[in-house]
């Protein structure tokens, strides 16, 4: 059976590191990866929203139509829209939950949502200068937004993990146990 793993969380929480741990912890499986990132429509919010809606609908459709026995990791997916839109774009991004709900019943057993959070001071130490947030309060708002989005998600198999309270391998093992 295919695995569809969505890994979410604020910048600098260790998503890429945990993707590597997933691959390491499942050595007999191959994962195809999608990485979602900022869209080029910063000055046109309507175009941004329209593009995002199409992109996330297609993301879930990829899962629905995927051949069996092929695994996918979606690094940064739809939950970010529900966090970043109200904080930095001035509109609610909760429309992505309607898209998610349209597909989750069919994908229920194969779909895993992993949301990483971390201590804001640790995130600030790892800041690469490319993040939206500009302060510890901004990071806290993002963490709260991801936790809210995680709770609101209709994905049945979901794990919210404070990755800052454990080492890389320990976090990877928690995720491995969750997926197994």
Question: Can you describe this structure?
Answer:
- By secondary structure, this protein is an alpha/beta fold.
- The chain is built from 7 helices and 5 strands.
- The chain has a 5-stranded parallel beta sheet with strand order 2-3-1-4-5, with helices on both faces.
- Strand 2 (31-35), helix 2 and strand 3 (71-75) form a beta-alpha-beta unit.
- Helix 1 (15-25) packs across helix 7 (168-179) and helix 2 (45-65) runs parallel beside helix 4.
- The longest helix has 21 residues, at 45-65.
- The relative contact order is 0.23.
- The mean pLDDT is 89.
Q: Briefly, what is this?
A:
This protein is α/β, with parallel strands linked by helices and 180 residues long.
Helix and strand topology:
Blueprint: E1 4-8, H1 15-25, E2 31-35, H2 45-65, E3 71-75, H3 79-89, H4 95-107, E4 111-117, H5 120-125, H6 136-152, E5 157-162, H7 168-179
Parallel strand pairs: 1-3, 1-4, 2-3, 4-5
Q: How many whole angstroms does the radius of gyration measure?
A: 16 Å
**Portion of residues in helices?**
40-55%
Distance between the termini: 12 Å
What's the total helix number?
Answer: 7
The average pLDDT score comes to 89
Give the overall shape, derived from the CA principal axes: globular
Please give the order of strands in the largest beta sheet: 2-3-1-4-5
Largest sheet: 5 strands, parallel
How many beta-strand runs?
A: 5
Give the ordered list of helices and strands: EHEHEHHEHHEH
How much of the sequence lies in strands comes to 15-25%
Structural class: alpha/beta
């Amino acid at each position: 059976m295919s695995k569809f793993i969505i890994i979410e969380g604020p910048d600098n929480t260790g998503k890429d590191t945990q993707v590597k741990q997933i691959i390491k912890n499942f050595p007999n499986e191959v994962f195809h990866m999608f990485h979602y990132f900022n869209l080029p429509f910063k000055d046109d919010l309507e175009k941004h929203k329209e593009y995002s809606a199409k992109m996330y609908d297609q993301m879930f459709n990829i899962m629905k139509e995927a051949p069996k026995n092929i695994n996918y990791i979606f690094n940064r997916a739809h939950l970010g829209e529900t966090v970043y839109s109200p904080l930095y774009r001035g509109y609610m991004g909760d429309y992505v939950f309607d898209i998610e709900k349209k597909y989750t019943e069919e994908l229920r057993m194969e779909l895993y949502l992993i949301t990483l959070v971390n201590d804001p001071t640790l995130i600030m130490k790892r800041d690469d200068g490319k993040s939206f947030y500009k302060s510890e309060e901004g990071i806290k708002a993002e963490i709260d937004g991801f936790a809210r989005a995680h709770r609101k998600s209709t994905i049945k198999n979901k794990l919210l993990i404070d990755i800052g309270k454990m080492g890389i391998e320990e976090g990877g093992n928690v995720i491995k146990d969750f997926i197994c």
